[in-house]
């Protein structure tokens, strides 16, 4: 099917015929007359042009119509109306003859572009592949291990993911459990150690940490956890150059949205009907993400956007320094959503206090229109208060009127709901005491600005690891607020961009069950080690507020890799090894099935013209993404050599006998 489609798209391009041979330069020169379509150094921004083609931009169409050759080639007269052949122009742009570079030429030759169907533009599924930009040697200290993480990403057409999202085999499963021991010398206090157990099976009470691609991991969670998660929190990549990791140039705006869409659609299936999701982002993609989530979760289920003052603004900000981030909250089903609001002391709205609690006051004498005695004569009367008879007298000395009947005012005085104050002219005024109700105490504001949160996460990680491995890890107090709002004890919390493990650490200390997913190799050195310290009772973050002293357990496991090992090999390649890696990739049966050896051989001479990063990206594209991890349905296949322990754990996870 794929090979046929590739061949068909080639035929379509050939049908453009000789007319195209002289028009490539004409179109390029025409497009470059619009500054919107060119870089500062005068190169054509093909992605911007393509976006305007798909949007049928009036500016683009006007520009194309200004040249008779272009008009004749890409527009058709239909009963006096000019119709733009959008598909033909898109094929034209994708042809290797139109402004080819070495990378485009190479990928076209090996059939990765799929002209006419545009894998890179249909945005069916986006996978991302991290690689380290340095190779660590044994014995390096923590500071040496700081490094940026760079992601390759690839958009996969929907008809190429037949097995990608099927349940996967789990491997390397371990359970870490806190064990209390008496101190030497017989003291009353006990110390906590963490024991590691292998050869385990999974049960409902287990907390879970998974290493692997988060899209594929979420898909594997569905079989056990569909409609069981109470709260999801994620802090995904923000699609900026200032992120904790960077995305390659092809990870553009539309691809980032697809990356989010893929994951959010699956995540929604995991949520309970009374569940909620919180997605943190900055202004770079906020507006687009909000519309995307409106579409996925339904606009009617939008709860609020919380504004968090996360860090100081950059000194080199061109215009306005951004000092906040947004947390978008949706309910799965707003009519069934459950939120647990914290009591607060609102000293601005309730400035007074007595033995019954916080209260505000309101004048009992009527003010404004209809406030004179002549307006409401029945509401002018004297009432006894603290041995004084009080009348409703207006500030100008005229007789006024009360807001209440005499019986009600006397009743409120007897119930202690009235207080008196003297005006400057000596007249006594009576005020109603309005106490803060339980509902009014339980309020959540959309703006959270507490500067202590900005530095506490870094200080906490410094304490745990000697230095902070993350510049902008979210503080435990922020996650505590969200988890407290959305869950109660024993509810299930999910974070599939787990990072340093803050969400899991907070959930553990708060008595919630949790699932965390992370694909970076630091999951072993940072995330797992942090949670082990939580089991031991570390006292950073929210520990003191939660009276946390240790205990509990969690399970760690990994998605069983298959072709993903090829990607790791490619990522670790150097200038010296990339050729041998290429040869092994070409010979591997786990590359895309519709490429022939002849096609690879024909394209091979262009490989040497690519940069090292382009060579890696190209080889990663060759890997069959259906074979990244081993499917659970294949675990008895001897080809994969799945151990009995891995089979037992996988079956227990999917609740199979």
TrEMBL record:
GO biological process assignments: methylation
Say yes or no: keyword Transmembrane helix present: no
Known SUPFAM superfamilies for this protein?
S-adenosyl-L-methionine-dependent methyltransferases
Q: Which UniProt keywords apply?
A: Methyltransferase, S-adenosyl-L-methionine, Transferase
Q: Which GO terms describe its molecular function?
A: DNA binding; N-methyltransferase activity
Domain DNA methylase N-4/N-6 spans what residues? Answer: 229-528
UniProt protein name: DNA (Cytosine-5-)-methyltransferase
> What species does this protein belong to?
Gardnerella vaginalis JCP8108
């Amino acid at each position: 099917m794929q090979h046929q489609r590739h061949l068909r798209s080639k035929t379509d391009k050939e049908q453009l015929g000789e007319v195209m041979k002289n028009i490539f330069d004409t179109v390029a020169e025409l497009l470059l007359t619009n500054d919107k379509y060119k870089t500062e150094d005068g190169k054509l921004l093909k992605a911007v042009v393509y976006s305007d083609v798909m949007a049928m931009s009036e500016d683009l169409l006007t520009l194309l119509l200004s040249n008779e050759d272009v008009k004749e080639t890409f527009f058709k007269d239909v009963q006096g109306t000019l119709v733009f052949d959008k598909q033909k122009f898109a094929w034209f742009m994708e042809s290797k003859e139109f402004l080819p570079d070495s990378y485009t030429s190479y990928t076209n030759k090996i059939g990765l572009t799929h002209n006419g169907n545009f894998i890179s533009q249909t945005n069916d599924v986006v996978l991302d592949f991290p690689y380290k930009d340095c190779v660590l040697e044994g014995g390096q200290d923590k500071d040496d291990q700081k490094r940026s993480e760079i992601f390759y990403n690839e958009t996969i057409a929907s008809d190429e993911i037949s097995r990608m999202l099927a349940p996967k085999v789990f491997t390397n499963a371990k359970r870490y459990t806190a064990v209390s021991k008496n101190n030497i010398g017989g003291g009353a206090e006990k110390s906590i150690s963490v024991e590691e157990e292998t050869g385990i099976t999974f049960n409902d009470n287990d907390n879970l940490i998974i290493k692997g691609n988060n899209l594929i991991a979420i898909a594997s969670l569905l079989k056990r956890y569909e409609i069981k998660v109470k709260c999801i929190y994620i802090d995904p990549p923000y699609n900026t150059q200032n992120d904790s990791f960077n995305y390659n140039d092809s990870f553009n705006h539309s691809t980032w949205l697809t990356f989010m869409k893929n994951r959010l659609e699956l995540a929604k299936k995991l949520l309970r009907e009374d569940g909620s999701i919180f997605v943190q982002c900055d202004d770079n993609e906020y507006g687009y993400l909000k519309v995307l989530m409106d579409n996925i979760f339904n606009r009617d289920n939008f709860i609020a956007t919380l504004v968090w003052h996360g860090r100081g603004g950059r000194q080199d900000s061109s215009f306005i320094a951004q000092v906040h981030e947004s947390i978008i909250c949706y309910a799965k089903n707003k009519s069934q959503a459950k939120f647990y609001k914290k009591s607060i002391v609102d000293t601005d709205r309730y400035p007074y206090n007595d033995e019954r609690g916080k209260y505000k006051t309101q004048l009992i004498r009527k003010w404004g229109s209809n406030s004179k005695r002549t307006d409401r004569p029945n509401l002018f009367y004297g009432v006894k208060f603290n041995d004084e008879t009080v009348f409703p007298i207006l500030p100008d000395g005229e007789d006024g009127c009360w807001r209440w009947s005499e019986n009600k005012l006397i009743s409120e005085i007897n119930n202690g709901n009235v207080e008196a104050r003297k005006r400057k002219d000596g007249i006594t005024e009576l005020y109603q005491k309005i106490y803060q109700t339980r509902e009014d105490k339980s309020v959540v504001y959309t703006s959270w600005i507490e500067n202590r949160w900005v530095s506490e996460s870094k200080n906490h990680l410094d304490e745990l690891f000697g230095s902070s491995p993350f510049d902008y890890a979210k503080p435990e107090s922020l996650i505590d607020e969200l988890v407290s709002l959305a869950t109660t004890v024993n509810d299930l919390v999910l974070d599939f961009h787990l990072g340093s493990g803050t969400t899991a650490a907070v959930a553990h200390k708060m008595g919630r069950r949790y699932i965390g997913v992370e694909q970076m190799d630091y999951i072993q050195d940072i995330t797992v080690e942090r949670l082990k310290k939580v089991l031991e009772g570390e006292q950073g973050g929210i520990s003191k507020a939660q009276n946390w002293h240790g205990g509990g357990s969690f399970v760690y496991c990994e998605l069983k890799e298959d072709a993903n090992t090829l990607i790791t090999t490619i990522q670790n390649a150097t200038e010296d090894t990339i050729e041998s890696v290429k040869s092994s990739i070409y010979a591997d049966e786990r590359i895309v099935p519709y490429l022939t050896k002849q096609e690879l051989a024909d394209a091979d001479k262009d490989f040497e013209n690519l940069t090292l990063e382009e060579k890696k990206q190209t080889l990663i594209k060759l890997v069959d993404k259906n074979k990244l991890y081993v499917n659970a349905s294949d675990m008895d296949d001897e080809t994969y050599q799945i151990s009995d322990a891995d089979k037992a754990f996988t079956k227990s996870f999917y609740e199979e006998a």
